[in-house]
Write a structure and sequence with these properties.
With 389 residues, the protein is of the alpha/beta class. 42% of the residues lie in helices and 14% in strands. The radius of gyration is 22 Å and the shape is globular. Bound molecules: pyridoxal-5'-phosphate.
Length: 389
Amino acid sequence: MIYFDNAATTAVTPAVRDAMLPYFTEYFGNPSSIFYSLGAEARKGMEEARATVAEILGCSPREIFFTASGSEADNWAIRGAALKSGKKHIITSAIEHHAVIHTCEFLEKQGWRVTYLPVDADGLVSPADLEAAICDDTALVSIMYANNEIGTIQPIRELCEIAHKKGVLFHTDAVQAVGTVPVNVADLCVDMLSLSAHKFHGPKGIGALYIKKGVRIERLIHGGAQERGMRAGTENTAYIAGLAKALSDATEKMEEKSEYVRKLRDKLTAGVLAAVPHARLNGHAEKRLPGNANFSFRFIEGEGLLLHLALAGFAVSSGSACASASLDPSHVLLAIGLPHEIAHGSLRVSLSADNTEEEVDAFLAVLPPIVERLRQMSPLYEEFLKGEN
Ligand SMILES: *Cc1c(COP(=O)(O)O)cnc(C)c1O
């Protein structure tokens, strides 16, 4: 199996696994039980992990709060800010991950008003649109750093400055960006930022929310004093150690790795567009994640394509792993203006530094005949060909 679905999740590396193991056994103590060494070691490991994450993101360890996932960090940031502020308006974009969109929809049912900013054909939010949407009642702006389906990277600093000029908090879902491209919260000037370990070769089920000092949001889980009283529950020390190790490994030689991945991706993209007629690349040509390519092929169904590619040994996706169980076209592809029938024929390829040029060559050899075979079975394609003749 050739794995081209790194935006859905990534493999835990042996080094990350090894960093986690001691916290299941030797250092199994509760990090709140600091009077004996078992607990003290667990706490020490956790606080070292927090310091590592903070240093990489450019903040203080006191501003890092571990969560059980990227989804949890997104839910917390948005609900926590909405509840604390006393204001009743939230601004987000139409192409957010469901962890953001569905949280906003939940708040709408509780009486909040939500503005879903449109995006242009490349998937970019317009700073002018954001400025116009902010009002006295706006509690929070939440715009994702990089899109998980089409890879487009937003001008986060510029958007954040617009929110701050009007005194509004800014959160970014940086789950696709952290560990892949340099992310520094001080440079971005954001108030909150979500990340998730399993997108950068850490374990699933652990994430973090950066909350800038002085930013007040409602606590997530009531109970003990863990995570400075903001998220109760005995901390997942092993996974926290795994997150920090994975992030520190991802950050090492990041530029080299992303250059390598970008070259592979560009070869794949050029190869696909040259070999498959009626294909388009979705997302911004340059402002995109290095490993992301997202295509739409007219006259075919994404599900059929995924199935045939799986039979040929490729793990790819139609867009979002979270939406792939439903047959609705992706809200992201509809938001960039694709008609339903074209959005249906979409394919996301997401590479990591573990992929090779041979794998890309193998993909370029199998994809065009699969697309052609699927089109031969499509009545729409038949009609189209008749129209051409
Ligand atoms: C994967 C992802 C999430 C969810 O993270 P989990 O840790 O899987 O809950 C949120 N936002 C984006 C952009 C993602 O890619």
